[in-house]
Design goal:
Elements (H helix, E strand, L loop, with lengths): L2 E7 L17 E7 H6 L7 H15 L5 H8 L3 H10 L8 H13 L3
Antiparallel strand pairs: 1-2
């Protein structure tokens, strides 16, 4: 069985343990059997992109990162990541606090 060399993004944790959305991501290389991506239904895209999407989805599912951060790590837009999550039956963790934050952000950005 052939193996693929994929690049997986490390999380953007700063020294204090908080996510830093603006810091450049360090890349690591990981070997993943082709069968893993095929079984995940991701054999139609570059290996690093598929693996990054799956890892971001798991971090999001666990509540360790936000939807926006998950889409950023996956390298796709929020809408595409929402669709990716829905196809894998991962619920959106959108709370009242998230809505309040989004409204404040929209107001600050004058959207």
């Amino acid at each position: 069985m052939g193996e693929i060399l994929g690049e997986i993004s490390k999380n953007g944790l700063s020294a204090n343990g908080h996510f830093s959305y603006n810091s450049p991501m360090t890349m690591v290389s990981v070997e993943i059997p082709e069968e893993v991506l095929s079984l995940a239904g991701l054999d139609d895209q570059p290996p690093s992109g598929g693996a990054s999407k799956l890892l971001a989805l798991e971090l999001f599912r666990e509540g360790r990162i936000s939807l926006g951060r998950a889409s950023e790590l996956a390298g796709v837009g929020v809408e595409e990541f929402m669709e990716f999550s829905a196809h894998r039956e991962v619920p959106l963790h959108y709370t009242q606090a998230d809505l309040t934050d989004d409204r404040e952000t929209a107001k600050r950005l004058k959207l």
